Amino acid sequence: MSTVIDQTKEIYGIDNWGADYFGVNRKGNLTVISPENDTHTADVKEIVDDLHKSGFSAPVLLRFPQLIFGQVRKLQIAFRKSIKEFEYNGGHLCVFPMKVNQNRAVIEEYLKEGSRHGFGLEAGSKAELYAALGLEQTKDSLLVLNGFKDRDFVQLAFAGAAAGKNVVIVIEKLGELEHTIAIAKKELKNDPNTPMPMLGVRVKLYSKGSGKWEKSGGEAAKFGLTTTEILEVIHRLREEGQLDLLRLLHFHIGSQLTDIKRIKNAMKEAARTYSKIHKMGAPIEYLDVGGGMAVDYDGSRTSFVSSANYNAREFANDVIWVIKTVCDDEDVPHPTIIQESGRYLSAYHAILVTNVQDEIETVVESRVPVSVGVNDKQIVHELFELRESINSKNYREYYHDALEHRDELFTMFNLGLIDLEDKGKGEVLFWDICEKADQFAQQKKYVAEEFDELRQLMCAKYLANFSVFRSMPDNWALEQLFPIVPIHKLNKKPTEYATLCDITCDSDGIVDKFVDLHDVKEILELHSLTKDEPYYIAMMLVGAYQEVMGNNHNLFGVPHEAHIYISEEGYMIRNVIPGDRLKDAVRSVRFDNDVLQSTYRKAIEKQIKEGRISDDAGQRMINFYKSQEDGYTYLSPNGYEKTKRR
Ligand SMILES: *Cc1c(COP(=O)(O)O)cnc(C)c1O
Asked: Quick one: how far is CA 626 from the chain centroid?
């Protein structure tokens, strides 16, 4: 017999996409499970209540650094096992691509665990490199530099090498090679012993990835050198007597690679290229297979865009096996494999919790019972007839009739043939018919698609206190799915169907696609809202890309952030970083808060002077405007008394 908790876990798919990091406790609250010890759990609802009491109300981003550790270990162990199983002679190292989440907490926590395995960093811009150079990495880890580079970028790489880092400049364009050669000459002239960065080349593969980012690979890709260009690099380096610097071959065929077959093809092609370069006399030793290891956001284990049809172990097996086979065939030593997995390492660790502020009233819910009399128009009578006689046999036909009648209703209204009251009655009757049709349809074994759409149209719209653009931009931009779960009441069956609206003034600010094992759900099962009691939901797996791609739409700022450690005693809130206040939000678009304050004050003072408002009322307005500069950019949750921030 399955319990209600088992059932709700299944509804939200927690065990499918949760990678053993998430559970539900006896109180019906969502928990985060320590990867080190699964008896150590943190109750997310308690964390949120705690934060609220300290003045940090929803939305809050919760970071669980231990989940980064967990992912690092999972990846490291997967490769270690495959290397052993296939008697592979090279090693495996990761470099975390900073662009996925450059937040200090993420990078530092990653390095803490990663350093134990020789894991380093990947930077794709000057700013990322600048940050990386000021961080400590272990001696054997790499700092790989991708992206387009100007002279300063290359010079910074030399600065890194001088500081003892194992820097690899990956040449994406031939001009970068010329900068490198010129700077190397200059540095060596000053000091013949100056440490040199290593060089890599990024190859443009014929093989493409799969999924939303497949444009990153293939012949028309933005990045990488063609075969002729790679030969030119080798030729130039040999000419300069610097071929020894060429140590790495890089490729990256896209993020969230959903299909392992495509990955294998790319590996084959890259391993061949690697072997040929080796045979040309370059001391190449690293094969950088890029990022792209997918996160199974919907838990379906398929090649669907929000999923992956492989796990870490299968990925490692395929990489190791293909590279070993090709290198053995070519009779070259096995390279050390470099992996630039960002999404896989960081997605799980962050969740955004927010409250459902309210329900948006639509005509569907606000219907009042109507009666029809002799004075009503014919169209109203016809809709009334449909409503009275719809049944399980004719519901489809009657529903279609109702759709037609509704069109007619609007046409008549636009022509001035009926008044507002007729229109109102007609609309209510129409939705009554829809509701009945929906009920009949859902009783059938096979529900026609049009009724699924109807259900989405009729379902509740929950107003969630967050900005999709700020906190889940890939959902808006790329229709990427993220699991969404209530953090409490999971011991009660959800009774409502809803889609989510965010609080931006943008009709795109909605979430109406949800993870499902077999399909994509257009509506999410949620609990009914209770007056004076907050209802919290969590957007899961948002630790990769979302924070840094999130934008400032409507000036909803960065939410509060808390770092949580899970231990035997439950959870510990280590660090709370307040989110943006109104004054931070206006500053981000270059307003001067002091000027805004003084202009407002002057306007009020003028009103007082001219006798339009009282001195007292004016002062209150000035004080209120002043106090708001420290307010949170999000809505204050309902159902709570006001609390003061610490
Ligand atoms: C974006 C990027 C990555 C990270 O990809 P993930 O899918 O997050 O693992 C790695 N390497 C390069 C060159 C990239 O541009």
From this structure: 35
| Token reading at 142 | 């790499």
Give yes or no for a contact between 299 and 16, defined as CB atoms under 8 angstroms apart. Answer: yes
CB 429 within 8 A of CB 384: yes
Torsion sign across C-alpha atoms 75, 76, 79, 82: negative
Distance 141 CA to ligand 1 centre (A): 18
The whole-number average pLDDT for the span 37-44 is 97
Q: State pLDDT tens for residues 250-303.
A: 999 889 999 889 889 999 999 999 999 999 999 999 999 999 999 999 999 998
For residue 290, how far is its CA from the centre of ligand 1 (angstroms)? 6
Among candidates 122, 341, 124, which has minimal Cα distance to 223? 124
Mutational test site, ligand 1, from 106, 252, 339, max ligand atoms within 8 Å of CB? 252
Q: What span, in angstroms and rounded, lies between the C-alpha atoms of 189 and 293?
A: 43
Look at ligand 1, atom 2, and give the residue with the nearest C-alpha. Answer: 291
Buried b (16+ CB within 10 A) or exposed e, 21-52: bbbbbeebbbbbbbbeeeebbbbbbbbbeebb
Helix or strand (DSSP H, E) at 284: none
- Label residue 1 by pLDDT band (50, 70, 90): low
Protein residues with CB under 6 Å of any ligand 1 atom: 97, 99-100, 146, 252, 255-256, 290-293, 340-344
Whole-number Å distance between alpha carbons of 564 and 79: 29
One DSSP character per residue, 141-199 reads: -EEEE-S---HHHHHHHHHHHHTT-EEEEEESSHHHHHHHHHHHHHHHHH-TTPPPPEE
CB neighbour list of residue 13: distance below 8 Å, 6 or more residues apart: 298, 299, 483, 515, 516, 517
Q: What pLDDT sits at residue 288?
A: 98
| Distance between Cα 337 and ligand 1 center (Å) | 15
Residue 642 above 50 pLDDT? no
Query: What share of the chain has pLDDT > 70, as a percent?
Result: 98
Under a CB-based contact definition with an 8 Å cutoff, are residues 223 and 214 in contact?
Answer: no
Between 531 and 216, where is the model more confident?
Answer: 531
Helix axes 395-414, 420-443, angle to 10 degrees: 160
Write down the mean pLDDT value for the chain.
94
Interhelix angle 151-162/174-190, nearest 10 degrees: 50
Report residue 641's pLDDT band, with 50, 70 and 90 as the boundaries. very low
Nearest-CA neighbor of 532 among 355, 292, 372, 342?
A: 355
Residue of 439, 504, 521 lying closest to 512 (CA atoms): 521
In the block, tokens 């006896």 appear at 26
Answer whether 556's CB lies under 8 Å from 504's CB: yes
With beta carbons less than 8 A apart as the criterion, state whether 198 and 167 touch. Answer: yes
Tell me which residue has tokens 């981000």. Answer: 588
**C-alpha distances out from residue 309 to 144, 145, 298, 319, 541, Å:** 28, 30, 11, 15, 18
Structural contact between residues 485 and 573, judged by C-beta atoms closer than 8 angstroms? no
Query: What is the model's pLDDT at position 220?
Result: 67
Number of C-alpha atoms within 13 angstroms, CB side, residue 382? 13
Give the pLDDT of residue 532.
Answer: 87
Q: Taking 60 as the threshold, does the pLDDT of residue 640 lie above it?
A: no
